[in-house]
Amino acid sequence: MLILASLSGIQDFLFDVRESGGRQARSLRNRSFRVQLLAECVALRLLEAAALPYDRLLFSAAGNVCIDAGQLAPDRVATLRSAAADIQQRLLRETHGRLRLSIAFEQSAGTFADRFERARLALTAAKLRPLAPLAGGASGVWGGDALCVRQVWDADAEADRDADLGRRLVNAHWLTIRRSNGTPDAGASDTLGYRVSLEAGEPAAAGDLVSCSNLNEPLSPPPSIDRKFFHPRRLARHVPRDRHGQPIEFLDLAARSRGAPMLGVLKADADSLGEAVNQTLRQSADGAAALQQLSNALDRFFAETLEAEKQRDPWNLIYTVFSGGDDMLVVGPWNVMLDFAGHMRRLFNARFGQGASDRPCPAPLTISAGVAIIKPRYPVHLAAQQAEELLEQAKGSVSPGTPPKDQCAALGGVWKWQHHDAIISAGRQLADWVDAGVIQRGWLHTLLQLALLRRAKAGPEYADVHPAAATARLAYHVARNWPRRCKEPRNDAQRAGNAARAWIDEILREFDQFDVTTHIQTIYLPAIVRYAMLATRSGESEDKS
Question: In terms of domains, do 294 and 185 share one?
Fold first, then answer.
């Protein structure tokens, strides 16, 4: 038997936090850990119900669980179904129906790849009716009664529970999960029928222990605990801290940006993972082992490799909302996030791309990302929605002459990763010229308006102006305002003026052919200028462009 389970409603639940402003960061950390904890407990409950060892768990990440259960007796299958219904009932109470469990049991014969595909399709269908097992009768059909959650939702109490969990998470070294029939623990929280504790000291062995994880050193078990209870759990929980060791909240993170005090919200995930999984299973002699290897490699990348990068400057200014499975959502100073997006993709390509020597899948994987740039007090659920929409643009937009995916969407544009560094570097250079007084910041506004006009995207006030007029206007603007070339520059200012003039002259030469040129800085001129405008803004009082 193959068991697939999936938690639905994660994103809505994750961002359903009441705090605003600076406390958003703390609330998100707490809620993100709670979601990870619920998914872990789902996997453990199903393994216990099937009387299976932990190594039959092929993966548990991003709210998805896969268990290779082998041959199970009918009574054990009945126990599994009962456990699944109990989990759904507890989720109904503990999350007030916002998180829902869908589960599929695939018992037919065939190759592992065939069984996995059938289970995947069954899970997709189950997601359409996630609460059907709670309906009356064996048919799973609701009668005249509506589904009611009898407990009144207490948002303040939930926020207090999340805050308490977050306080313990900051200094926790160990995560222990025990059966609820053991000795009560005042510091434990009830989760799907288990008692979960976050502890600074090494946990003691006990008969009710189900799982133990080392949060600081995932592969180092405690010597006093039987190894069968030790389960490596990578927990992405990086929080930027000041020189006193205190967490830096969103408002202060934004203040560490270049220019405009804004935040960047980066959402990224692997492209076409379903196709990669199918191909891996079809081309592997041991499908279960291959699936486990690929899942572990992805989870280690997002929850371990990227988390390790955040220990170094400047990535230590990045706040992890979640990172694991095959995706992540992180927040930080806007310019740092744009740089990190490119850095993240280089690391991903080195592990899963065309040239990776130990790639855990037959075909190379790519990744796409969206970066939303927001004010620090902006509601975080709306920011996450913007980042998600940008991610979908990155996956769906077709760049000139290339297929979709393997792209980044930000600053009003979508581009292939191979152009990312050139675009960001050009924006940074343009901002440097403004800061050095080589060009005026007002010229950036002119350049952006003319670039948008040439693309017929300048807005209703330019409805009567033909796009072709933008080229002549740009030529006039450059001739009148931009620095003239010095044949023999004598100082840094003159050399910078020459570089700026050479740059704008090249833009002008290609400006009218933006849709066919291969000159990257002309193609993505609006994004480059937007970067420079943000980088040279002094505060939030100016209009966002």
Answer: no
Q: Is residue 240 assigned to a domain?
A: no
Range of the domain at 106: 1-136+153-168
Which single residue is written with the structure tokens 């995930």? Answer: 269
> Of 378, 410, 442, which one is at a domain's C-terminal end?
410
**Could you read off the pLDDT of 320-375 as tens digits, one per residue?**
888 888 889 999 999 999 999 999 999 999 999 999 989 999 999 999 999 999 99
Domain contains 417: no
Confidence (pLDDT) at 182: 56
How many residues in the chain? 545
Same domain, 442 and 369: no
Is 472 found in the same domain as 380? no
Let me know: does 299 contact 234? Beta carbons within 8 Å.
yes
Q: Would residue 545 count as lying in a domain? A: no
Q: Is the domain of 333 the same as that of 458?
A: no
Which of 153, 33, 26, 31 is closest to 92 using CA atoms? 153
pLDDT bucket at 380, cuts 50 / 70 / 90: confident
Mean pLDDT over all residues of the chain? 88
For residue 70, what is the domain's CATH number? 3.30.70
Q: Given the DSSP bridges, would you call strands 263-270 and 319-324 parallel, antiparallel or unpaired?
A: unpaired
For residues 278 and 516, give the distance between their C-alpha atoms in angstroms, rounded to a whole number.
Answer: 37
Q: Tell me, yes or no, whether 352 and 458 share the same domain.
A: no
DSSP state of 110: S
What is the pLDDT confidence band of residue 429, given thresholds at 50, 70 and 90? very high
Dist CA 164 CA 486 (whole Å): 64
Q: Is the pLDDT assigned to residue 203 strictly greater than 70?
A: yes
Q: What strands, in cross-sheet order, belong to the sheet with 327-333? A: 319-324, 327-333, 263-270, 367-374, 407-410, 413-416
**Pair of tokens at residue 56:** 């039959």
The pair of three-digit structure tokens given for residue 68, joined into one six-digit string: 């290779």
In tens, the pLDDT along 217-234 reads: 888 988 888 888 998 877
